[in-house]
Amino acid sequence: MLSSTNYWMGLAGLVYLFAGVFVLRKDISAARGWDKLITLGCVFIAVSLAIFAPEHFHGGPTYIQDMAPSWMPARWFWPYFVGCALLAAATSLTARKFVRVSSTLLALMFSLFVCMIYLPSVFAHPGNRFVWIFALRDLSFAGGAGALAGLHSRDSSPQQSKWMILFGRIAIGIAAIFFAVQHFLHPKFAPGVPLEKMMPSWVPFPSVWGYLAGAILLAGGFGLVLNKQSRMAAASIGALVTVLTLFPYLLILILAHGGSVPQINEELNYVADTLLYAGAALALASALPRDPDRVETT
Hints:
This protein is mainly α. It contains 12 helices and no strands. Helix 1 (4-23) packs parallel to helix 6, helix 5 packs across helix 6 and helix 10 (206-225) packs antiparallel against helix 11. The chain is globular, with a radius of gyration of 18 Å.
């Protein structure tokens, strides 16, 4: 059972996926090994943003505006503004036009989400692991977009580029370490971004998935924070989360086709969230040097 919101979310994701792969088809064909997946980082980000956008226009503005701080004026306006911003960024990344500007603004937007929405919750409920996860998740999104902006500003602003990529490396690295610890402490929760969803009962050995994801995230997170084989570390995180997007999250969405509208909406959000985290890590990998030992440690 699909609502109009569910329909447009799914359709937008598919359109931007096919368009993004088509635009990058030559780059994907020419890439070798890890680089084929790394090339798709910006596509994954664009697809996720496109999935989120319709939710801000159809049926979502009421609960989305409730997330905005109470002191913000014209709270009815912001869901529509953010929806337009998400769609504009997705279009820019897909068409490969104005990528530096769109990714910089995208990093700024996610950073504002962290500061204005999630950090107050962290300060109010420091013992709640989920508020930390939400904050670090959006910080990772900001880090991936910042790294992409740094990649596209190397020639014009090399020093700014260096700092933006550093921000992405540290943000995604710290989040990966925190997420890894959560996987070890709560292995039966669905892996990737460890939110409230439990692994379905039909998944064999659910704890094994949690421990395996935790081990890869931990190794990748330390690699990023310590700047050791950082490109491989980011690519490993991106590859892991890409696999997790397909299984279990996409399969859970497919199996929910006969469920309620809120259930399908939730599963769409989990797919987009996980894919965006994968895209952020892969975008960071695309911005990192192939031989980190030759780069001055910052």
